[in-house]
Write a structure and sequence with these properties.
It is built from 10 helices and 2 strands; from the N terminus they run αααααααβαβαα. It has 2 domains: 104 residues, no CATH class; 108 residues, no CATH class. α1 packs antiparallel against α2. It starts with 15 loop residues before the first helix and ends with a helix. The longest helix has 21 residues. Helix content is 49%, strand content 4%. With 237 residues, the protein is mainly alpha-helical. A two-stranded antiparallel ribbon has the order 1-2. The structure holds zinc ion (ZN) (2 copies).
Length: 237
C-alpha cells in the first residue's frame, strides 16, 4: 500500500541552509513542483546524503521527495498566507530575507551550499552568532578557507604585519609571536566566488584576531556581506 507521507514527523527541523535550498527550488520553478519532479528528487537526494544532521535521529523518510515537496508548499504559504498551509518561523524568516527580488543571489548561495555539502557533507560547527546569511555550510567553508590560507597570507605579508581593519602593528618580538595576533580573512563572499575557483592569496585580508571576529559578527548581525572598506569606515571617529 502506498500512503503518501507528507509529514516529516519525528524528523529534525529544517535548518536555515536546507530552507535556503528549498526556497531556491521554488523560485527556479516559479512555484511548487511535486514529489515526482526530478529537481525535487535531486534535492531530496542531496539533503539525505549531506550530514547536516547526524544519521542517528533521522527517520527513514528524512527529507524524502514528499517532505521536500511539502516544504515547497510551506514556503509558498509563507510568501502568500492565503494559501492556507502552515509555515514555520524559519520559513517566514527565509522568505523575508530572500524575497523573489533576491532570487539570483539566492541561486548563487544555493549552488555554493550544494557544492560545499558535496565536498564536506557534515559542515563544521560554527557558533550561531557567527553564521552568515549564506548559512552554516558556507560560513564553515569560509572559516576553513581562512584557516587554510593563513600560512600563505602571513608568508606574503611577513615584512608588513598590519591589521587591515584597525592598523594594529605587533610590538617587536620574534616572528612567531608577532604572527600569533593575525588571522586571514576571505574578502569575497563564497557564493560570489562560486565555490569552485581556487582561493587566491590576493582574495585574502590579514586581520588581527579581534577584528576578524568583529567582521564576522558584523556580517551575521547585518544579515549581509560587509567588505573590508565598509567595516573600516566604522573605525573612523
Ligand atoms: Zn585589527
Ligand atoms: Zn573570515
Amino acid at each position: 500500500m502506498l500512503v503518501p507521507v507528507t509529514k516529516g514527523a519525528g524528523n529534525p527541523d529544517w535548518t536555515w541552509d536546507e530552507t535556503l535550498l528549498a526556497l531556491d527550488l521554488l523560485y527556479r520553478h516559479d512555484g511548487p513542483i511535486d514529489r515526482h519532479h526530478p529537481d525535487v528528487i535531486d534535492l531530496s537526494k542531496a539533503l539525505r546524503a549531506a550530514e547536516i544532521y547526524p544519521r542517528e535521529g533521522r527517520k527513514d523518510n528524512f527529507r524524502n521527495p514528499d517532505g521536500v515537496a511539502l516544504k515547497l508548499q510551506n514556503l509558498l504559504s509563507a510568501i502568500d498566507p492565503t494559501r492556507g498551509l502552515s509555515s514555520s518561523k524559519r520559513d517566514k524568516q527565509t522568505v523575508a530575507e530572500f524575497p523573489a527580488s533576491r532570487k539570483v543571489e539566492l541561486a548563487n548561495i544555493a549552488a555554493t551550499i550544494l557544492y560545499e555539502l558535496s565536498v564536506n557533507p557534515a559542515p563544521t560547527e560554527v557558533s550561531d552568532d557567527e553564521v552568515f546569511i549564506e548559512g552554516q555550510t558556507v560560513t564553515a567553508a569560509h572559516r576553513r578557507r581562512d584557516q587554510r590560507l593563513r600560512r600563505r597570507v602571513l608568508d606574503k605579508r611577513k615584512d608588513m604585519l598590519i591589521c587591515e581593519l584597525c592598523d594594529f602593528i605587533p610590538p617587536p618580538m620574534t616572528g612567531a609571536l608577532r604572527e600569533s595576533f593575525f588571522e586571514a580573512h576571505h574578502v569575497v563572499p563564497l557564493a560570489e566566488a562560486k565555490g569552485h575557483v581556487a582561493t587566491r592569496v590576493t582574495d585574502m585580508a590579514l586581520l588581527c584576531a579581534g577584528c576578524h571576529r568583529f567582521i564576522h559578527k558584523l556580517i551575521s548581525s547585518q544579515r549581509q556581506w560587509v567588505g573590508i572598506k565598509e567595516a573600516r569606515s566604522m573605525f573612523a571617529r
